[in-house]
Amino acid sequence: MTLDEAIKSLMALQAKLAAYGHAMGLLFYDGATTAPKGTAANRGQTMSILSEEHYKLTTGGETVALLEFLDAHKSELNEKQQRMVFLLIKDIRNMQKIPMDEYVAYQQLLVEADDVWHRAKETSDFALFEPVLEKIFETNIRFAHYCAPEKDPYDYWLSEYEDGLTMAQCDEFFATLREHIVPLLKKIKEKPQVDDAMLHGHFPEEKQAQLSDYLMRTMGLDLDHVGLSTTEHPFTTSLGSHFDERITTHYLEENFASSMFSVIHEGGHALYDTGSADDLAYTVLDGGVSMGIHESQSRFYENLLGRSRAFTGFVFPKLCEAVRELHEAFEDAIGKKARRFMQVDYAYQTLDNLPDGLTAPEGREKPLGTAHAVWCAKELTAGCPIAVINADDFYGADAFRKMYDYLASAQDDDKFRYCMVGYQVENTLTENGTVSRGVCTADENGLLAHIIERTAIHRDADGVIRYDADGDAPAGEIARGTPVSLNLWGFTPSFLPSLDDGLREFFAGKLPDNPMKAEYYLPFAVDALIKDGKATAKVLTTDSRWYGVTYREDKPTICAAVAAMTENGDYPADL
């Protein structure tokens, strides 16, 4: 046998092993998702035959001879081929130590165990599952003694899932974590807990399924190669290769967040698998390199991205659209409190809510921007002056008084007469990092002339407020007292009708250049009206201190400031 012939045989061997794995994986996936409850024995019968053939192929003399030949010529193999041979020999050496009848029986046991576990889970009956679980433990301990009699069985299996990992390393690692996490958790529990009432309510499964589809597309998953089903406990599996990835979730109609985060988590697994190079398909190198790396990717998407403020803010409009029942939870958590002081109505920003004749680009998921969001409230605000704010900023009472006083008497004449509240730049900074602000210039009449967006604004040790260079724009200073915009705008009733024309211009102009991401922002809409000579915007200055959670470390400062204002009588204690 020549080396070229051996390499071709190596690839053919792996393709056969992948095909057996594909068939057995389908049996497992079917059993965990859509198979009728009484079909476990039928799958077990098929699994026993497939696993026996898989065992014979893996440990057969022809396979062993091929791999030993390639191992003897490994210096002539490329890096990928060497790794394939190494992993196959390692697996074969272990499998040869396990009697075939015990290996086949174990595969049947796993089919039975999965069926029993699902029934036990549904009825909360651990006693039903306990005997099967004991058999699984006993078998794994016995297999570990076969393969590595010199090792503790737990050390053997740890190393199989994460090469080289031992109990001693885990004990040391978790002891370090425990030393820091336990005191931290104790401190967290001693603090007031977040009110998560809005996560609980009634969320129909079909609405959650729509949200799952949106989340998968938003994550960048190719839905032609990644499928989603429901099961008792979510998991991800590859069928044959990374060209066919399946993820699962479990919908709880009283808590949509459970499935939302499981889809993001399992989607992270799928992204990692589908990122494999295509030339590795149907080989032992396809998919993830280890369980640890695999889990790091899923946890990264679920916890660092999925639970971030940026991501939740991005998907919130879609949550309201796909899970409209979120309205009830939001009303319970926030709306009812506000309703004690004012009338509360809700508008939804959706991609199909547009002026007549306009249609969102096919495949678009991202909201169309803040100006469109305001336009979506047109039916609730028709004929009324309106103020627009960011929901996550604290503007201060003085700013709202000035906005109210202006709008109470504002009248359009030959131009639309709008306004904005300008904060002194020094009152909008945080000690925990930099901020971005719209730096305003007003004319001699106090009307907004233009806004320049400055990024990375900060106060240096010398007390001077500076901003960093941004692209072609050089770094510079901002004088104390300079007004900046924090998106607190006031409009007469003429504004919403004007957005009809603005949206049409946006759809004809900027949107075609970036159909999936371009947004129609509120400041852009105002700026266009001012430049066209149709509107003015009075800059209302305030001495109020702005508060916002730009950084996690900002929260204690805000809590202390609100508490002080409450104690001073600026706000009622039961607000």
Biggest sheet character: 8 strands, mixed
Shape: elongated
What radius of gyration results from the CA coordinates? Answer: 31 Å
Secondary-structure-based class equals alpha+beta
Distance between the termini: 83 Å
Written account of the structure:
With 575 residues, the protein is of the alpha+beta class. 51% of the residues lie in helices and 13% in strands. It contains 19 helices and 13 strands. It has helices at residues 3-32, 40-59, 61-72, 79-96, 100-123, 126-147, 153-161, 167-190, 205-219, 256-274, 291-305, 309-322, 326-339, 370-375, 378-381, 397-409, 495-508, 522-531, 555-567; strands spanning 226-230, 236-239, 241-249, 386-388, 393-394, 416-424, 435-442, 448-459, 465-467, 476-478, 483-491, 535-542, 547-548. The strands form 3 sheets. Strands 4, 6, 7, 8, 9, 10, 11 and 12 form an 8-stranded mixed beta sheet that branches. Helix 3 crosses helix 4 and helix 5 (100-123) packs antiparallel against helix 6 (126-147).
Keywords:
alpha+beta; 19 helices
Please describe the topology of this protein.
Elements: H1 3-32, H2 40-59, H3 61-72, H4 79-96, H5 100-123, H6 126-147, H7 153-161, H8 167-190, H9 205-219, E1 226-230, E2 236-239, E3 241-249, H10 256-274, H11 291-305, H12 309-322, H13 326-339, H14 370-375, H15 378-381, E4 386-388, E5 393-394, H16 397-409, E6 416-424, E7 435-442, E8 448-459, E9 465-467, E10 476-478, E11 483-491, H17 495-508, H18 522-531, E12 535-542, E13 547-548, H19 555-567
